[in-house]
Design goal:
Blueprint lengths: L1 H18 L4 E7 L2 E9 L2 E6 L5 H4 L9 H12 L3 E6 L2
């Protein structure tokens, strides 16, 4: 039950953070390896992939609308493995 509550609180915090036009940064990881980043600055979203990222991920063109959990789900479905997005302080 605590895990569910933590998940809900984390998702709400991400949605609130994304709603403001302050810079925000997330790492994107698969199997514990950081493969890219997601940046939101002045309401503009930018997805960047690092060298060696799975080409199926790098081919993702969007949409990027601030729903971080939906993006993680979409990317996970593309490669058939869990993709995690973790917020970092900017």
């Amino acid at each position: 039950m605590l895990s569910l509550a933590s998940t809900l609180v984390a998702r709400a915090a991400r949605l609130i953070q994304a709603a403001y036009e302050e810079p925000a940064l997330w790492t994107i990881s698969v199997h514990g390896r950081v493969v890219g980043s997601l940046v939101c600055e002045a309401g503009a979203w930018r997805l960047s992939w690092f060298n060696g990222a799975d080409p199926r991920l790098a081919a993702h063109a969007g949409p990027l609308d601030g729903d971080i959990d939906a993006l993680a789900d979409t990317l996970s479905a593309r490669i058939g493995a869990p993709v995690r997005l973790e917020s970092l302080p900017v």
